[in-house]
Amino acid sequence: MRIALAQLNATVGDFGSNVQGMVRAAQQAAARGAEVVAFPELSLPGYPPRDLVEKPSFLDRNTEELERLAQLTADLDISIICGYASRSDSPVGKRALNSAAVIERGKVIFRQHKTLLPTYDVFDEARYFRPADKVELFKLRGIPVALTICEDAWNDKTYWSQRLYQRDPVEELFAQGAELLLCINASPFSMEKRAVRRKIYSAVARRYNKPVLYVNQVGGDDHLVFDGSSFAMNARGEVIASARSFEEDLILVDLTTGTADQRENLQDEEEAVYQALVLGTRDYIRKCGFKKVLIGLSGGIDSSLVAAVAVEAVGKENVMGVAMPGPFSSDHSVRDAHAMAERLGIRCETISINDPYHSVLQQLAPVFDGLKPDVAEENVQARLRGVTLMALSNKFGAMVLTTGNKSELAVGYCTLYGDMCGGLAVISDIPKTLVYRLSRIANKNLNDAIPESVFTKPPSAELRPDQKDSDSLPEYDVLDRILEAYVEQNHSPKVIASSLSLPLELVQDIVRKVNINEYKRQQAAPGLKVTSKAFGIGRRFPIAQRFAE
Hints:
Layout: E1 2-7, H1 15-31, E2 36-38, H2 56-72, E3 79-87, E4 96-104, E5 107-113, E6 138-140, E7 143-149, H3 169-175, E8 180-185, H4 193-208, E9 212-216, E10 218-221, E11 224-227, E12 231-233, E13 239-242, E14 249-254, H5 269-287, E15 293-296, H6 301-314, E16 319-323, H7 331-344, E17 347-350, H8 354-368, H9 375-396, E18 399-402, H10 406-411, E19 424-425, H11 432-445, H12 452-456, H13 476-488, H14 493-500, H15 504-516, H16 518-521
Parallel strand pairs: 1-2, 2-3, 7-8, 8-9, 15-16, 15-18, 16-17, 18-19
Antiparallel strand pairs: 1-14, 3-4, 4-5, 6-7, 9-12, 10-11, 12-13
Helix pairs in contact: 1-2, 5-6, 5-11, 6-7, 6-11, 8-9, 13-14, 14-15
């Protein structure tokens, strides 16, 4: 049997475009001799649809568009497997099911619903869907196939030391006599995730001594980036077919002969992170209806990386940089910002905030009389830059990309309604130390667009004379190790201090900063998730709380 795996970039709710994409892919697969083509989880409505699932009209549209897909492909001699949201007929539980349909010659011949509904990290499927009561085999071109949806195949007892679920749908299906596992997925990218997937499915293939096929979504949807990276394995758990990462792709697997398409995957994880940022930025801008972006260029490494990503995402003609020098900005900052803009080929405007800053201070002087200058005056500068960028955004219809990194956002080293203003926080899940490494990748792609001086000068917000980040924070290589242990691994300050051989007082101070700045993060622009635990929908802590470790 020849099976095509089609990883598509669906847009949530754009049924027309999503169906057109599936029709084109089905035609392409049929032309190449495929007998089956499989699309990702919820490929019809796009993933994740979130509260759209609670709209009866949304579920009705899923049913209508599934029928339309069947009719548009009725003349193709190919079986089509796609994901959609169906209506539950159960008198209890949620009204919707996360489903897969098998279409042949214009008719739906089989449906399978998702059994295991994840409710961890960024997933909240139990909020929307009712789990399937049972799983059943179906005959695909005469072969009994186990058709599963994403999480249903992530519960193998030979791989996990502690499973999340009692049931194992894959085990149930192979007990019924399955000869093949075909899994449709919408699995978001994070560092090392691609390797983990292959290990899990390799364990399944070896356990049952059967081939495994895995098709995954690709593209950006709000916080999430889907990398595709679809694959097929033989019964020994060896990869025999692979699709590209971060691109739409269609690969063909011949299970009879063992021949298959092998596309190049990005093997280096930091290269993959960079491409995830490019794809996530491109799709967020495009799917939100924008074409152009604005970036406040400080001459620092963070804004430089964001500008480079933006150029790769939407093209240099659609990127505008804005240098906004203030009373404490260094000459080299403005010089570096313009040098990089010139190398990238983007427009760069200089709009000084000096006069507005002094005007605001003059207006505040009667109220501030007798008080020493402090963070209030510093933040006026950041907020004037935010006002400037948002004015330009309104005038030119361009989305502002914020430039704060994960390290700063973690400890609150950022200004609400200032440098946090914008529509997308491109590098909010990128620790500062990783920012430098990704910027080297950007330079490799873009002919050394970021000047070397940007890499070597000490990081500074330049909101007071001779300010450096190290005045308020430990060195970033130390800070990032603490943050990874606390935010991503949930270790206590005592464990962190001991394992990293750091003073407990230092770790406690960083943890305190993380905890008291939750109110800032919950008002931040959405960011792109690339690590195992990103701020945003995957990390849900209360703002008003007094738990202390």
